[in-house]
Amino acid sequence: MSTIVFIDTRGEKLPKAAQEAVTYASQLAGGPVTAVTFGDAQGLETLGANGASKVIVARNVKAVDGQQLTRLVCAVTEATGATTIVCVADATGKAVAPRVAARLKAGHVAGATGLPEGGRFRRNVFSGKARAFVEVGSPVRVVSLSPNSVPITSGGSPATVEEFGGDLGAARVTVKELRKAGAGIPLPEAERVVSGGRGMKGPENWGPIEELARELNAATACSRPVADDHWRPHHEHVGQTGVAIRPNLYIAIGISGAIQHLAGVNQSKVICVINKDPEAPFFKAADYGIVGDAFEVLPKLIDAAKKLNAER
Amino acid sequence: MKILVLISQVPDTTARIAFTADNTQYDGNGVTFIVNPYDEWYALVRALELKEAAGTGSVITITVGPADTEATIRKGLAIGADEAVRVDARPEDAYQVAAEVAAYAKDKGFDLVLAGKETIDHNGGQVGAMVAELLDLPYVPLASKLEVSGGTATVERDVPGGVEVLEVALPCVLGAAKGMAEQRIPNMRGIMAARTKPLHVVPATGQAALAATVRFELPPAKGAVKLIPAEEAGKLIELLHTEAKVI
Ligand SMILES: Cc1cc2nc3c(=O)[nH]c(=O)nc-3n(C[C@H](O)[C@H](O)[C@H](O)COP(=O)(O)OP(=O)(O)OC[C@H]3O[C@@H](n4cnc5c(N)ncnc54)[C@H](O)[C@@H]3O)c2cc1C
Q: Which end of chain A is more exposed for a tag (fewer CB within 10 A), N or C?
């Protein structure tokens, strides 16, 4: 049973989410895994380490036209006779996976959080407040994987890389501009996140948050009012209306823990909360907590993190 | 501009989440249902703004759902939609919903189809893309800004590390996220008008579901929080390293 894994490999190095998806695909069905991607990425043969035997790349496709990419995935699916198609539940995967599913009349599991048990895929529903188990009834299935759901494996031999030569039609979606908002670790794939809320009082106070994040090799995030008031860029806003994340470590500083904020972060493995109000609802969702003033606590955390890094 | 907006009914944002005794269905007893916030605040309101700016056109909502969704559908009309369509079927999976929407929309000449980026109950984010595929239209998920000019939509969306600006040929389907519009509260006039606006019930074409949610569960309860005195805050870093092993 062969498996296709469609990944977005744009960026300076191969994204972690892509490596996760290839690892996942190789564990899901058994049989050869063919990775399908697009654009200019180099080093695609290294996906062999995660379990892909072949990578097919459409070099002439640069942008994110879901229709072109769907044609690409479906063409490779047909050529290989694959019955399982894995995607990443990110912005690109969300434009492609459901389309592929609809085109192939295949059941789609959106945002699986691990390998199926007894044929059932687990996924989060009700903004992380519950889980659902999904069964696919169709002969072909499409599974999109939530980032940070599986540990990456490595060790296999390099994959062969082939260019896709077929006709994918004209793009009806084109990228006009990409406005970069600084470097740093992309939030959805960050393993550690340091996040600030309205308790930080203003954008001028983000220095210590950024410093702690640097020391912990973490991404920075914020609550919604912080983004709404333009203290921080919108793509850092986590929660129900923002980005949903599932890092190993989430440190929330001066954030109350409103239900809509929790909805985007409650899948984090370990949650630490720093808040001066002992009644802040976030403490109920936290593993570790400090009741205290962020402006006094943050320097202590930064010092301790520096000390730890120096000892390593 | 003729715009179709997908509206789904979901439990209120703050509703208690519980399931029937066999854990196969959401238990909606005593729960207030609302229009899915992404559908209402962003997709529907932006559709109305575009129509108002053009001074002509129509905004039609579509919902796949049984008769008990009609109160929610009227809310969409109260906010300003011109007409509503209800496809008379109980939603089973995203494909079935998308196939019913596409079957309705295919010969109606919509310039734009707007969905929310996802529903706050199933969180799948699939229906918009599936509708687009079934109608052979472009689709952009997670759209946070939308301008339309001539035959082109200019769409912005947040991507890791920045904002991507896309140009999309019309007609197209978009999944609306926060930023696209501001919430509108229906006024008394809107609520009165909604009572007399057309709500067309159309029979389902009987599309079959392809995936089934067979069981739900609540996450295991969290243990109590471990509190560290503020004076010894540095100890947190130590515990994260030695005990939780996440740094
Ligand atoms: C439909 C809907 C969707 C929403 N989506 C989101 C979402 O996606 N993400 C999101 O975050 N919110 C969302 N919200 C908003 C949410 O309800 C809260 O309003 C928001 O999360 C509050 O942000 P906050 O905790 O930063 O601010 P506040 O509620 O103002 O809380 C600030 C906290 O900081 C603490 N504090 C103050 N000073 C200090 C100090 N010196 N040291 C330590 N602690 C201090 C206070 O005790 C308080 O707990 C949504 C709301 C709705 C209705």
A: C
